[in-house]
Task: structure prediction
Amino acid sequence: MEELHKPVLLSEVLKVLNPKLGESYLDLTAGYGGHASEVLDLTRNYKESVLVDRDSFATEYLRGKYKGEPIDIVNDEFYNSVLKEVECGKTFDMILADFGVSSPQLDQAERGFSFSKDGPLDMRMDRRQELTAEYVVNRYSERKLAEIFQKYGEERPGNAKRMAREIVHARPFKTTTELSEFIKSKNGYSRVHPATRIFQAIRIEVNGELESIEKTLPILPKLLKPGGRVAIITFHSLEDRIVKQFFKDASSHGEESELRILTKKPIVAEQTELVINPRARSAKLRAAERR
Result:
């Protein structure tokens, strides 16, 4: 099948996970199977592997891709999936989580993730949920908008408040380009599109991304076999900070530690990858091993 999404840091992920024939694999954000395909080509263990994604477009693609293979493909939020795997008593040799937005999500204008493509203000990774970007933009109070712009978009407090006020006074907004062009008109020239942080903040709010990460990470050691490896890819400092702190806490109790850190510093993409996959420029990979 045609590759819809180019996985970031692929060779680096394979190096830290070190897949071996017969090992089991849990991919919490499988997307369109970029990383999973390479891992499973090495393990050939479909029966004991699980691919999870909250995006039904992705899981339907994966079911077609792996038709006939005894692999478990789950359309659910990764925190819910982790809880179910723990309840079933399953453990894995490898776990991967790639917390970025997939290329197809950005490329499909109707998903509403991209400020450069005209589409509805949606941004739901799981289209079964009720909360949308349109609701956030048009119904949240000025104070609440300012809070998420500052917290999730890492906007300066003054600019977060100013943009929240401007949006509230000008709403309603219906489309992505309508909102992004409005934000651009209210900001001076900058190398990075001024809507970047605002869209990031809205997307994180709509999907509850940071809360899911914070709830999921402490459970992961329970799902790893002794010697099992976990690799996590983040795309902005908010996510990376949470992962870094989790690994630090889980590895700082001497012989009683649950994890041993495999990456002293986060691994970033090499220039050769950035040339063919610019999306990798903000990606950071951290990994650890179950003691």
In short: The chain has a mean pLDDT of 93.
